[in-house]
Amino acid sequence: MLPLIVVALFAVLVGLDLSGSSISAFADHPENRGLIAGAPLGVRSDEYLLETPNAISSARQGMPATAWVGLAEVDQAVAAGGGPTLDWSIAFRAQDWGFALLDPGRGLAWNWWWGFVVCVVATYALFGLLTRRILLSAAFAVIATFTPYSAWWAPTLFLGWGVAAGAAMIAAWQARRAALAGAFALVAAYAVISQTLVLYPGWQISVLIVIALLCVGYVLDRRPGWWRLAWTSSVAILATGGVMGVWYATHSAGIAAIAGTIYPGQRRVEAGSASAAALVDAPLNFWMTGAAGQSLGASGLGGEIANQSGASSSWFPVAVVVIVALGIALLAVRRKKLRVRRDDAPFGMLAGVSAAIVLLLAWALLPLPSWFGAITLLDRIQPARVPLALGFASILLLALATTVRRRPAVWSWPWLAAAALATAALTVWSAESLPWDTTLVSSWLAAASGVVFGVAAACVLVPSWSGWAALVLAVYAAASWLPVNPLQHGISPLEEDPLAVALRESADPSENPRVLVFGDLASVARVRSAGFQSVSGTTPYPDRELMSDLAPDQEALWNNYAQYEWMPAPEGRPAVIERNVGTMMRLQISPCDPVVAAHADPGWVVSEFRLEGYSCLVPLRVVEGAQDRTLHLYAYLTR
Length: 639
Known about the structure:
Keywords: Membrane, Transmembrane, Transmembrane helix. This protein is an alpha+beta fold and 639 residues long.
């Protein structure tokens, strides 16, 4: 029933052209915003300044295989932040199907909600296979999907496809018919491929670690026949390897370019830099969207915790998790004396998931040696990125605990009450430790949010209360998730933007879609949303030949994922890159720079500054009204 409800809701949201995008930040007038509820989030700038404009740009151009995204003509099938493309791999990018089948607005809605569909359905399937309880599995699926971390970061595709792979493999091992087992093995391969092609190792690897250890535990607990285990696993591995091999071969140039960058290609991170306070602050999410959350950006401390995204976490009732692990350990030690049968508790799966939690926590908080990160691949995971997998593992542990038939003594009321109070205390401690204005969040409110979370999580371990407790947690999770993102109708803030309208009236992307933009990233986003390509702005990976000619002595700056704000320099002066903050760069360059002209062959120039005396520019018009800005539009004379 839950999958049908989710799919029906997805169809309604896409049909009504509703998304959670923050593009209303572009609107000049309220009537052009399309904002139904909530408010655009400044911290979501990657979404409304890069991802959404690039997607709309690609959709308006017919979803080409390559496009200029910054200072490179990137392979859109491998570039982080690239738009959707009709490359054959779109078969494994279901999140982009809406752009191919529908108009750009509904394509955005499809893309926005698809991750939640996959995550809810996949987690429901996995919990159903493990608990055999429909309503409990539905509640756990909502809890695992609608976390503060998923609200702020939107990583549900990574979790959903990873969980789908695990659920499909377990189903393959359980299936009575060989044909059905083979089909499930192929579904697992499809899920792994789909997760891999979303291209963010930090979330991919951590989720797959949890799923892999769960599957190892399942094999130890259920002991499927060795032949079924061998051939279904072989089918999944061979199918995955075959498709990924073809993908690598057809996109090797783009992959090599990304791998050859200093950041992110050569980046390896050290363990122990995550904030313990941020790992347990999920109950505080109700205040993250308000003034208290906004004060994080003014903390001056920098780093991952300087905004609401960096401070968010998944549901992680650490005290209850400790009680679960302690109870299972005691049962395992006294198993023979208590005559606990193998079917009474999934010891292997509980141990595997517990090991994943310990591993992720250790990587997040402890100064582990670099060799440890290299052999486990954890050095690809920023410690602050573990909440996605860590939170899911904790909910998975609670779900598995509901299947234990002989309850250990430490799951009695005194211990559970202590765990609930400890959760409340940790929530208050987290509120006091976060770098926000503590006067804006009452300690009593923080404690109350922690009590609700802690009591509900603890009551999941009580057989007669587990269903109701999980339902309370599900409602609590949904209530926390809903206020974070706005509800946006259509893409009118981009379609009706004065610059976008002027570009469509005065320039022809079919003649030449490449534009040089002198100004901030908002102007770049407007250009892309009009169906053009911007050579300015964010560059997922550089064109080595272009950049070697443009700034030969500055490879340490340009050989990275970077965001360039272009500033006009006198004609004939060499280009110079200046670092601003983090990946933000300032490029001092002449609009008529011969290197850019030769490599990028631009057709148009948009500038916040009046560009006079440049031999390559022909003024077309001045655009007024783009949020009280005056923008100048020029045609570019190619030589």
